[in-house]
Amino acid sequence: MSSTQFTIGPGLTPQNLIDIKAHEDAIMAILSPHLVNLTPEQMHQRAMGKKAGYVDEMLKLATEQPGFLPSTFSVADFTKVKSYISDILDIQAHGSAFTEGLSETGFWYGHIAMELADRVYKLGQEEAKRGNTAIGAYMERASRYFAGQGQKGHAAEIEIGAGAKLTVDNVSVGTPFTNTGRTAVSVEKATAASSLARTSSNAVTVQPGTQFQLPDDFTAISVTNLSADTGGKFKVKLRAH
Edge-to-edge strands of the sheet including 204-206? Predict the structure, then answer.
């Protein structure tokens, strides 16, 4: 199989990467004053979710018939909060195409890389059989990446609450991460930093019904439900204890 059978883009230049990261930093600088970092307790509070119509109706009532409300109730604050929700969801929807494109592109090029690596490995095996000892160390190191495959484990389907974040340990090496819920979720390698942050620039957004191949070093992952909906759910294979 030749690499010419794949569609491969022109590649990103070092300056492209610098420019992209600079634009991301500029966007975060604008957004940061408006973003909220929730505590674990706050993540489990009741969210609007599918009750947007209810919220809209009560805002309309408060705006059009405010006479029955106490003076301590701020209709202006209610209006401002609802406006915030609309703005954030608009930004999120606009950005989802960007993150989904990155996820799918990374997945596809990862697939191409695996196909090409398999070809090199197969040719390397054939060459080793012909007595070429110079490539033996490469073949031995490559085989270590598949160590443990075939060991018993189990696929776990895990629910994640509205806006919640959780960590999953004992993830099988090279397992796919499948979003089986109805909300977008992000997944990243679990680290001390990722457990504290809401989400990071290293996180990959996985849309409902899609799959992301976890890198081999993702043996513990942090998963965040990016929606105020409670329908977050994903499936991943865990190693046997």
Answer: 165-168, 221-225, 185-189, 204-206
Can you give the residue range of the structural domain that contains 108? 1-241
Query: The whole model's pTM is what?
Result: 0.48
Q: How far apart are CA 31 and CA 90, in angstroms?
A: 13
| Residue type at position 22 | A
Q: Which tokens in the block code for residue 190?
A: 């679990």
Domain count within the chain: 1
Neighbours of 113 (CB within 10 A): 11
d(CA 83, CA 171): 40
How is the chain split among helix, strand and coil, in percent rounded to 5?
A: 50, 15, 35
Q: Where are the alpha helices (DSSP H) in the chain?
A: 14-31, 52-64, 75-129, 136-144, 192-196
Q: Helix, strand, or coil here: 24?
A: helix
| CA 189/CA 200 separation, integer angstroms | 10
pLDDT in tens, 77-118: 999 988 888 888 788 777 777 777 777 777 777 778 888 888
Residue 167: CATH number of its domain: 2.60.120.10
Spatial distance between the Cα atoms of 170 and 148, rounded to a whole number of angstroms: 13
* Sheet order of strands, 232-239 included: 153-160, 232-239, 176-179, 211-213
Tokens (6 digits) for 47:
């969210």
